[in-house]
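task queued by scheduler; priority normal; single chain, no ligands, no partner chains; default sampling; output format set to structure tokens
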Amino acid sequence: MTRSSILPIVAVLLLFTARSGSARTPKESIPEKHIPEECADTLAEAASPRLGFEMGIELLSSYVSRGSYQAGASFQPFLRVSWGGLFIGAWASTDFSGTQMREVNLSLGYRKGRFEAALIDYYIAPHPEAEGRFFDFGHRSAHTFEASLSWSVSERVPIGIWWGTMFAGADVADDGRRNYSSYAEISYPFALRQAVDFKTGVGFMPWSTENCFNTRGFAVTNVYLHAAKTWTLRRNLRLGLLARIICNPYREQFNFVGGVRFEL
């Protein structure tokens, strides 16, 4: 076969190959490298949300909540299960003597990006006679229910804003009116040398919280500086050391809390 007779055959084959390639589906025709990695990760998570699990304990020299002293040395376990942005959690605190305070908090919420919304049930049984009444949710019960919102401005400016308002349970004034007791906090996390994580913030009650937090009018109750250092011991087991300086201007209290945290 001569060169002149081969050339037409080659030309026909090339034309057929080009047409076959142009018939690929749009998905096949887009090179995978043109999809940014962060977009690919987001699409993968949206397609198949992962089940997350966290658990651990904290051993603290004292329990201080929203700037107010609650109990002495305390044992505080926590558990959290998440699926996509949805999460449920449990947190508890019991002082080592077992006589000052016992608290169990259950939460249900949703987190998306820098925004989080949650519903929290605070069950606080500081007296033995409150035991055995967990399923009493009235205004004389040991339960208070809170709706909370939190938001972080951005990664470059990680200022956090948190607001929570009690809407059911024992949050009532002496005359029977609901207080809608609220607590708000503005915080800022930062890190220094030796991989120590810090967080500072100011928390306040915007109005009176009779029989709940027991404040009158606007009250700044929590000015703090937290520091934490964490090490990975084995696989997912982490050990942390905690130190917290907490000032409550409204009650004129000052607390310095230290502790240890184990987390999986």
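post-processing summary
- The helical segments are 3-22, 26-29, 37-47.
- Confidence is low (pLDDT under 50) at residues 1-46.
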